[in-house]
Amino acid sequence: MGTFRALLLTIAMAFGLTACADSKETSPVNQDNEPEASPASAIYTGTIVYKTFEGGFFAFISTDNKRYTLRHLPDAYRLDGLIVEITGSVNKDIITTTQFGDLLEVDAVKVLDDSHARPPESGPRKLKSL
């Protein structure tokens, strides 16, 4: 009888774990149980900067001094001191180790001034953008 109980318990646990693994991520809901709209893209003006801590990363400081960690920044714009307009959206659902403001998902970049832009002094390793 003990073996039969153990078998039933094992089967029940297997079904429970399978149900958890099959669950789908859902969009956030408000108190009325309606999905919330995803954040719309906006235009941010400021300077791309390279920060050396946490292994090095590209960040963005807007003209109103808000700080952002950049995600999906194209290689062509990975220059320290580049003044740009970035079209993108802030993603507050992702936490990074950079601790440099909110995460800004980059959709498009328009260069405004590249006169002070330079590649970061970081050595031969590949520089990252989240």
Walk me through what this model shows.
Strand 1 (about 40-50) and strand 2 (about 55-60) form a beta hairpin. The protein has a domain at about 40-115: Beta Barrel (OB fold (Dihydrolipoamide Acetyltransferase, E2P)). The protein has one helix at about 1-20, and strands at about 40-50, 55-60, 65-70, 80-90, 100-115. The protein has 1 helix and 5 strands. Strands 1-2-3-5-4 form a 5-stranded mixed beta barrel. The protein has about 130 residues and is an alpha+beta fold. The chain is elongated and about 80 Å long.
Question: What does the secondary structure layout of this molecule look like, with pairings?
Answer:
Elements: H1 2-21, E1 42-51, E2 57-62, E3 67-71, E4 82-91, E5 102-113
Parallel strand pairs: 3-5
Antiparallel strand pairs: 1-2, 1-4, 2-3, 4-5
How much helical structure, as a percent, in the residues?
Answer: 10-25%
- Note the gap between the termini: 55 Å
User: What amount of the residues lies in strands?
Assistant: 25-35%
The CATH superfamily of the domain at 42-113 is identified as NigD-like N-terminal OB domain
Q: Could you spell the SSE succession in H and E letters?
A: HEEEEE
Anisotropy-based shape = elongated
Please compute the radius of gyration using only Cα atoms.
22 Å
